[in-house]
Structure prediction request, 113 residues.
Amino acid sequence: MSLIERLNNPGANLYYEQAFRNVFEDHLSYIKQNRQNYITSVTVDQNTAARFAGDFRGLMLAVSVFPHLHWFNMRLNGYSSCSDYDGQQLTIELINENIIKELSRAYKTKRKN
Prediction:
């Protein structure tokens, strides 16, 4: 998939809602404890890591992660801001989008009630 196609897929609007992100934060420890089901990892070379120091979003695009998942991956890797990535971490954990979809379904169901 091209960079343009990735940039044109912003994901569901609720992925950007603070209330939904709070739900993700509430489930983050569970996700980490069950990493075999929800997390994969990718290793970047030192040059790539250095190139994207201070730019976690750029790193996410470089490893072909859709923009709507950048924030979730940032939090999964322990960063509070995309500028927190210092280029030292070569193995990056990536969230399986299926858990985000599961959380969003539960969130939307609960929100309707």
